[in-house]
Write a structure and sequence with these properties.
Blueprint (H helix, E strand, L loop, with lengths): L3 H13 L4 E8 L10 E5 L4 E3 L4 H16 L4 E7 L4 H4 L2 E9 L4 E5 L3 H12 L3 E6 L19 E4 L3 H9 L5 E5 L4 H11 L6 E4 L3 H13 L4 H6 L13 H17 L13
Parallel strand pairs: 6-7, 6-9, 7-8, 9-10
Antiparallel strand pairs: 1-2, 1-5, 2-3, 4-5
Helix pairs in contact: 4-9, 5-6, 6-7
């Protein structure tokens, strides 16, 4: 079985490749196979590390880990009977699955009132934020000098498309909020973003404004499947009015998408 240091190093390697990994731990076992505390990892590219000394059990865990990765759960406890003889199967096992992934990233195009508020809210909730604007005064570090805001990466864009491509990269674990000041900037940012395969892409604006941008890119030959993924207008309907409320509505939708939330009231189950 791998040591804690070996496991930590392997998990870091997987995260550095932009992958997600499941840490699997035996938290209860049976007297025949006392392996409490034994661990293995399974990444979303199928790579495994470590094992439990039983081929059937390892294969079972790999299948369950794959199903867990396809869900949006953060943790899962599974009670199973150890694969093997009838005697072994009479003793239950408890296995803990924990999802480990790089901190979520949020790329915001546009540092106006909404974009700046969104950057601050997202930083508070644990996102690694990149805030981009083509106006240097809007991404001045003096505007984001509070302790929590110091983690926000501020980018002055000389070229919107290049700045967005550099920020989004392969799109793994990345959400993109396009909240610029006009059609031209929206088009440039969305054009660059569509090639990055981000987990979430949303664009601010009225239905008319966003449809103009989407139709323009459609005419240019943009992939229709990718265009349909764009949340436009961006955000959940919470009746937002102020820039801060709009930013909150956007962040709520991003979080719901990331965790598989519906955006419905939690109290709805009580209503007839």
């Amino acid at each position: 079985m791998p040591t804690s240091t070996e496991l930590t190093n392997r998990i870091s390697e997987v995260l550095d490749r932009g992958k997600t990994v499941v840490l699997v731990t035996i938290v209860e076992s049976n007297p025949i196979r006392p392996i409490v505390g034994a661990k293995m990892t399974v990444s979303d590219d199928g790579e495994t590390f470590g094992g439990f000394g039983d081929e059937a059990l390892d294969e079972y865990v790999e299948r369950e880990a794959d199903a867990f990765l396809k869900s949006r759960e953060a943790t899962k406890v599974l009670y199973i009977s150890t694969p093997g003889s009838a005697e072994e199967a009479s003793h239950g096992m408890k296995i803990l699955f924990e999802r480990i992934e790089a901190e979520p990233r949020l790329v915001i195009a546009g540092a106006g009132h909404v974009g700046a508020s969104l950057a601050r809210f997202a930083a508070l909730t644990g996102f690694r934020v990149t805030l981009i604007d083509d106006r240097a005064q809007f991404v001045d570090e003096n505007l984001f000098s509070a302790r929590r805001e110091e983690s926000i990466e501020l980018v002055k864009a000389d070229d919107w498309q290049e700045a967005m491509r550099q920020a989004v990269r392969n799109g793994k674990g990345v959400s993109v909020a396009i909240v610029t000041r006009g059609h031209k900037q929206d088009e440039e940012c969305l054009r660059a973003t569509l090639t990055g395969n981000a987990d979430y892409v949303g664009m601010i604006g009225s239905k008319r404004r966003t449809n103009i941008v989407l139709e323009k890119l459609r005419e240019e030959g943009a992939d229709e499947t990718e265009l349909k993924k764009v949340r436009a207008p961006i955000g959940l309907d919470i009746g937002a009015v102020s820039p801060e409320e709009v930013a909150l509505a956007i962040l709520a939708e991003i979080i719901a998408e990331r965790h598989g939330g519906t955006g419905a009231p939690l109290s709805s189950w009580r209503r007839p």
